[in-house]
Amino acid sequence: PALGLFLFTIARDPLRIIILIAGAFFWLVSLLLSSLIWFIAVKASDSQDEPLQKGLLIFGIMFSVLLQEAFRFLYYKLLRKAIEGLVALSEDSCSPISIQQTAYVAGMGFGLMSGAFSMINLLADALGPGTVGIHGDSQLYFLTSAFMTMVLIFLHTFWGILFFHGCEHRRWWEITAVIIMHLAVSGSTFCNPLYMGSLVPSYLLMATAATWAYLLSGGSAQNLRRFLLCKS
Amino acid sequence: MITFMNNSDSEEEPCNERTSLMSAESPPVPSYQDGLQTAEAGEAQAHRKRRTGSSRSPNNIADGDMSDSGVPVRESALENEEEELTLKYGAKHVIMLFVPVTLCMIVVVATIKSVRFYTEKNGQLIYTPFSEDTPSVGQRLLNSVLNTIIMISVIVVMTVFLVVLYKYRCYKFIHGWLILSSLMLLFLFTYIYLGEVLKTYNVAMDYPTLFLVIWNFGAVGMICIHWKGPLQLQQAYLIMISALMALVFIKYLPEWSAWVILGAISIYDLMAVLCPKGPLRMLVETAQERNEPIFPALIYSSAMMWTVGMAKPDTAARGGASQQTWDAAEDGRENHRSPLHADSQMSETRSPGPTRPITSFEELEEEERGVKLGLGDFIFYSVLVGKAAATASGDWNTTLACFVAILIGLCLTLLLLAVFKKALPALPISITFGLVFYFSTDNLVRPFMDTLASHQLYI
Fold it and tell me: Which residue ranges does UniProt annotate as crossing the membrane (chain B) (predicted)?
């Protein structure tokens, strides 16, 4: 689905592609820094101690989430400057791309990159022979991974919209809500492989974020109804 | 290198695309950038005039040619507009370069992942005589540094040789060299490549069929690249030979040498293009003096110039000869030329220079100017990504990270091009990002992601 979104909405406009790739880049940098921290922590600690390792992992994940949001903020600042520059330069003093589209594309960038990193090794391994869950792990590993990745990509997209909107209108509570949601989703994955605990809340959160973003972007129940009923 | 290209083709240039290949034996010439700044300013000026003026004068080319002399006067007046044009259409050009670079990388990565041949070590090029199979780390490092020095010096020598030839107008020699190298590339390397791919997929192929296929492929390629041909076919051929060359490099360069060479080449690129005495810069300036398009530098052009009577529009951007589509066509006005010398495989795609002035009011000469990127840059980007795919144990994550890093580097370079408006080296920024991301992803991110994936945790 994310790929479909990409093809239909982003591939047309070159500016959006650039913003997408830059978004992916920012996510990548945040991942890099967070893994650096985790790596240092692991190396500095005792590698035989299981609970400690788990604790470090959790710490690494939380830190990574915070760092991702920080980078989203940085990216927002950069995009603001860039759009202002573009507006100043364009002849009819109207921005070639609205801030909401930018938010959407940036969120997509983040999401795609995180999804790709989560899924792609899995997919490569999935091509080869083997049985899922042979060592007593869940047999639904691939399926749940796929769903989780998808929900994460969508979530990143929606968070992008919410985050940028919050930054635009200086509503700090929106930003903190995004951060809390992200932490919650990551935290819920700790319950894996008890999939009930992670997938369901994630999907619920995604539905919430989706409606919120939709309302923020100017949609409303009437719009939706008109669209669905194909009225002009 | 990436440069702006102006319509500075001289009168005798044929109005069509022309590409020529450099000989395969010649080492890659570092990318150089060509800054046809003045011509470009005049060109952009002419464009702008066309754009804003109510009477659209079709004499773009004529204007461009004439404006070369009057450039300083007009340049100051329209500098702002030019910048505006530059930045506004910059995104489109970036994409026009993203696509071929991405395609090339995809081809290389796909081949590396599937065909075993290119990851086996079957010897080394004579350019890298020192082996890396030594027991100690220090020795290996030393060998790779020595390899790099030899390779870079070969490249420098060949570049200087090329510049000297160009200066003394030995065009025949250069053309012969290019044709020879393109011959070798198109036939020999394609034969090896096809052979290996067929072996991998266990497809039987008899010799006559193979001969026919390769003959057709090679002949069409030669025609397309050296003579006229549809733009997209030409682009496809250039991408293919870049990929082939990159594969050869990936196979035959030993591990550490490859990384050190990549780093050294980007430094060399930087110096060769920006230093006043750098060979590439001299090449560019000589070409500028003679008012010729940058010589058959193996460059990839994303667009072509054509006159109304000639080719049909390929894309919507190149509209017809109607005034309504004028603005649409204006998108391609900016001509970024980025000659990047690639290693021995360099193809030059030169936009045909519109030569005859069109006097009729209705016939508009449309110039689609695109960005030009040297083939060497393609090759080195693909080498980086291919090496990442071949040797990284983190597999796809590392490859993906390098890919994104290179694209961002390309973006930044194009941005700088828009700001500086001179030929710029396209290698340093991208390669630096790529190298940084490769090493950091391989060593830092991979354990992190592996641990996350094994517990199925998501960040």
Answer: 94-112, 145-166, 173-195, 207-227, 234-250, 256-275, 400-420, 426-445
